[in-house]
Amino acid sequence: MDLDRSKPVWPQVADELRRRIDAGAYVPGARFPAVVDLATELDVAPSTIQKAVAALREEGRLYTVLGQGSFVAEK
């Protein structure tokens, strides 16, 4: 993923994660990858991933279970 570092990065990351969910890379009900894993993969700070995940949660694309992690919501 090529990031435009002259613009805020977290919305770009959120767009990429949305694309992955829509493409079926993360299926409904499946555990979403950990923040640290995504941060390493995308070469961004964990806080950037946290902001992107929070945006996806607000959109209803993800939900979080305390102590278990984030999961892909049903469409």
TrEMBL record:
Keywords: DNA-binding, Transcription, Transcription regulation. PANTHER family: GNTR-FAMILY TRANSCRIPTIONAL REGULATOR, MANNOSYL-D-GLYCERATE TRANSPORT/METABOLISM SYSTEM REPRESSOR MNGR-RELATED. It comes from the Bacteria. The keyword DNA-binding applies. Residues 7-75 form the HTH gntR-type domain. It comes from Streptomyces camelliae. This is GntR family transcriptional regulator. The keyword DNA-binding applies. CDD domains: WHTH_GntR. InterPro entries: Bact_HTH_transcr_reg, Tscrpt_reg_HTH_GntR, WH-like_DNA-bd_sf, WH_DNA-bd_sf.
